[in-house]
Specification:
5-stranded mixed beta barrel; globular; 24% strand; alpha/beta; 6-stranded parallel sheet; 429 residues
Length: 429
């Protein structure tokens, strides 16, 4: 039987889809990217109301277009909102992300008796890290490796602690074994990901820098890249230890959310704007060619025009090389749901537009400043005209012309121009 995965959300979800895919292959199933399949697995995200809507639409679309298929819903939405997920009758099997390892057995059970299955188990305090490891990452030249799960922070707007449980860390010996296997398969860049990545080790007595160094020291790995980080976890000691990992890419995604102290407090974030600024300066002074990317939420409950302008000014002053901008979305069951001052969607959309325009100006200016510089680039995709696109270590997308197969190789590129604001153009040295 052919199985198609449809994955929404973060890199952790992408990793878990790969793990489930490998488990199903071991059970005799075949994965496909075709629109026609016997089984559809929707791995959901529930960070925003929009993500929930996309999940519902996907479940209904796959069943409508393939009425004889088996539709499976898993991921964060059923974990956080099990009863709402149970109501999606188009899903033949509903399971939470805690039960992903049961997928092959549940699928076999459904094929045997054709009775709808609902399997969502609550994350419990004290749960250990669980889940399969992966041996490859299909259709990608870099591999995402999940090393951490869960979050203890309870930001007032966020449902993730309820959908992912508390902090859990992959044992170092397991991480080492997994990445060694990926290196043998030819992956020379790995991206370490987690729900709250920089909290790695809080449950096990290990530490985040120790996990990074474990991967850094593996033969065959040329680059170690990091997923999203909580800024206040990056103490001077942590930054110093990370700087000793020579394969670590000097690109850091620090989750800002807002540059306004009043809003940060209402969000239950664990730093001030000034503390964030000092961490950013320390990273840029420690790592050569360092780039900083971030997430910014606009229109949080109670955010005034002055609060928004303060956040906007902070983004402009910090000069992030890339900013993901998104409007606040009410999540049922969070503390922010009950806060006063929820804004109209029209206001939130307008603030998104303003913030994004400023962020794009900064990004275009940064790209222009790179002209004439040389970097190592790992090519990832190629088009029909023979142009490759790849990334520098500090995550600048570069498009260049080349002959022959360069996938998985490292080439030296000189940046010669910028292209339509979203990438640089280069030539092989």
């Amino acid at each position: 039987m052919k199985v198609k995965f449809y994955t929404l959300g973060c890199k952790v979800n992408q990793y878990e889809s790969q793990a489930m895919s490998e488990a199903l292959k071991k059970a005799g199933y075949e994965t496909t990217s075709d629109s026609k399949a016997d089984v559809f697995v929707i791995n959901s995200c529930t960070v925003t109301a929009s993500a929930d809507q996309k999940t519902r639409q996907a479940v209904r679309r796959f069943k409508r277009n393939n009425p004889d298929s088996i539709v499976i819903l898993t991921g964060c939405m059923p974990q956080a909102y099990p009863e709402k997920s149970r109501e999606l009758v188009e899903a033949d099997i509903v399971l939470g992300n805690k039960n992903n390892a049961l997928l092959p057995a549940l699928l076999e059970q459904y094929r045997k008796d054709c009775k709808r299955i609902f399997s969502v188990s609550e994350h419990l305090k004290g749960d250990a890290f669980s889940g399969d490891t992966i041996t490859c990452f299909e259709e990608r030249t870099r591999a995402y490796v999940k090393i951490q799960d869960g979050c203890n922070r309870f930001c007032s707007y966020c449902v993730i602690p309820y959908s992912r449980g508390r902090v859990r860390s992959k044992p170092l010996f397991e991480l080492k074994k997994e990445v060694e296997a990926l290196a043998r398969k030819g992956y020379n860049e790995v991206v370490l990901v987690g729900i709250n990545l920089s909290s790695y080790g809080q449950d096990s007595g290990s530490s985040f820098p120790e996990a990074v160094k474990t991967v850094n020291d593996i033969k065959g790995i040329e680059r170690v890249r990091l997923g999203s980080l909580e800024p206040d976890h990056l103490t001077d000691e942590v930054i110093e230890k990370l700087s000793e990992c020579e394969k670590l890419c000097p690109q850091f995604h620090l989750s800002l959310q807002s540059g306004c102290d009043r809003t940060l407090k209402a969000m239950n974030r664990h730093y001030t704007a000034d503390e964030f600024r000092k961490i950013a300066l320390r990273l840029r002074s420690t790592f050569e060619d360092c780039t900083l990317t971030t997430d910014v939420m606009v229109g949080f409950a109670g955010e005034s025009e002055e609060d928004f302008k303060e956040s906007l000014d902070f983004v402009k002053d910090t000069g992030f090389e890339k900013v993901h901008v998104f409007p606040y979305s009410v999540r049922r069951g969070t503390r922010a749901e009950k806060l006063p001052g929820h804004l109209d969607s029209r206001i939130k959309d307008e603030r998104c537009k303003i913030m994004l325009e400023e962020a794009e100006k900064i990004r275009r200016s940064f790209f222009a400043s790179q002209i004439g510089k040389s970097y190592s680039v790992i090519p990832e995709v190629t088009d029909k005209n023979g142009f490759y696109t790849g990334y520098t270590a500090n995550y600048i997308p570069v498009k260049f012309k080349a002959d022959g197969d360069l996938h998985g190789k490292t080439v030296s590129i000189k940046i010669t121009a910028t292209g339509d604001g979203d990438y640089c153009i280069g030539e092989i040295i």
